[in-house]
Write a structure and sequence with these properties.
Layout lengths: L3 E3 L8 E4 L8 E5 L2 E4 L4 H11 L2 E2 L2 E7 L5 E6 L3 E2 L3 H9 L1 E4 L7 E3 L9 E3 L16 E3 L2
Parallel strand pairs: 6-9
Antiparallel strand pairs: 1-2, 2-3, 3-4, 5-8, 6-7, 7-11, 9-12, 10-11
């Protein structure tokens, strides 16, 4: 589970986490609400959030019409609950974008009702020999 290792039983258990907020990758020992280790206060906040309400930034690709390659890399502009990541990937698998697409263009306004938009992470020009309607976002279903 993303840098988490259980070190004990049920409630009051001790857990060891690796903070991922910066390149230092500090080792943290957590027996909520106590957090030890780490080099900055961000580690404590990260550890408590990770144990109570873990979230993730979702990165994936969506299909594209009218361009090569035919996949566009996208990411959420915020975090969604960790348990919703797979649902988010499935929802984005149904999205088809029509080229051209600009870096930062919003592809989905609100992923799964969490209020988090999904944006393109690169420019993708239309291929001249493929017909496309610029800026149109098509969705299957």
């Amino acid at each position: 589970m993303d840098g988490e290792r259980t070190m004990g039983g049920a409630r009051g258990e001790e857990r060891r986490l690796t903070c991922v907020l910066c390149p230092a990758g500090c080792d943290l020992m957590v027996t909520a609400p106590e957090v030890t280790g780490g080099r900055c206060p961000k580690g404590r906040d990260y550890a408590l959030k990770e144990l109570t309400a873990p979230t993730r930034t979702l990165t994936t690709t969506v299909r594209v019409e009218g361009a090569k390659p035919d996949r566009l890399p996208v990411r959420t502009l915020g975090e969604i609950p960790k348990e919703a990541v797979r649902r988010g990937v499935r929802a984005l698998d149904a999205v088809v974008v029509v080229a051209p697409v600009r870096l930062g263009q919003v592809i989905v306004d609100d992923l799964l009702g969490f209020g988090v938009p999904v944006v393109a992470t690169r420019d993708l020009p239309a291929t001249r020999d493929l017909p496309a309607t610029p800026g149109r976002i098509a969705r299957d279903g």
